[in-house]
Design brief:
The protein is of the alpha+beta class. 17% of the residues lie in helices and 32% in strands. It has four helices and seven strands. The chain has helices at residues 36-39, 97-101, 116-121, 128-135, and strands at 3-8, 17-21, 25-32, 48-54, 78-81, 86-93, 109-115. Strands 1, 2, 3, 4, 5, 6 and 7 form a seven-stranded antiparallel β-sheet that branches. β5 and β6 (86-93) form a beta hairpin. The radius of gyration is 14 Å and the shape is globular.
């Protein structure tokens, strides 16, 4: 899998990072989720996990040719907007050794792969139900 770096949220050390792949997907590197109360809200399939990232990470989508990186809807693969202003992103956990070798991933982070189409759909104007959900975070 070939990766194209789109951006990260800090110039200091390792932190949540966004990549585009040659497979029509994005790789989202973020903080591992250990909080049981948060994990209880997720329905993870086989091989899936979730990461937590700052909402601003998706501003880097503009480097992939998208007009905006503002997520306007909270639904899969972005499953929760936390009160702390972060997103929980759910997807297939990346286990591809070649892809992982191209990244610097500290022990407290992991990487999920999500379809580009699923992320770009979240850039569209929100539905009324999405606005209510965003105004009242799940946690």
């Amino acid at each position: 899998m070939k990766l194209r770096f789109l951006g990260k949220n800090s110039n200091v050390g390792d932190c949540p990072t966004l990549y585009a792949t040659d497979r029509g997907t994005y790789l989202v590197q973020g903080w591992r989720i250990f909080a049981n109360d948060l994990l209880m809200h997720l329905e993870l399939g086989v091989g899936e996990t979730a990461v937590e990232v700052p909402t601003e990470l998706f501003e880097h989508l503009t480097k992939d040719g998208l007009a905006t990186g503002e997520i306007r809807r909270v639904e899969g693969p972005i499953v929760i907007l936390t009160p702390g202003g972060t997103f929980v992103v759910q997807g297939q956990e990346v286990t591809d050794a070649e892809a992982l070798a191209q990244m610097e991933i500290p022990d407290y982070e992991t990487v999920v792969e999500v379809p580009k189409a699923a992320i770009t759909a979240l850039l569209e104007e929100p539905l009324e139900a999405d606005l209510q959900r965003r105004a009242q975070p799940a946690l």
